[in-house]
């Protein structure tokens, strides 16, 4: 799995640019990239993944397991 920071750098984006597009602070993004804050919010993870052009599961593999859970509703996947 590629880490968020690696993907961001490969896309030629600064922390400031990604944070602005994701509507979070640069400090928050830095904490996520450095593992000080875990990316557990699906909608934020999905937003960041979309900005970077990768599936959300690349950033947070646990979300792949949740999508295959019988408790995961199809309508939630479309949000």
From TrEMBL:
InterPro entries: Cro/C1-type_HTH (IPR001387), Lambda_DNA-bd_dom_sf (IPR010982), TransReg_Diox_bact_type (IPR050807). Coiled coil: none annotated. Keywords: DNA-binding. GO terms for molecular function: DNA binding; DNA-binding transcription factor activity. Pfam families: HTH_3 (PF01381). This is Transcriptional regulator, XRE family. One of its GO terms (cellular component) is cytosol. The lineage of its organism: Bacteria, Thermotogati, Thermotogota, Thermotogae, Kosmotogales. SUPFAM superfamilies: lambda repressor-like DNA-binding domains (SSF47413). Gene3D superfamilies: lambda repressor-like DNA-binding domains (1.10.260.40). Residues 4-59 form the HTH cro/C1-type domain.
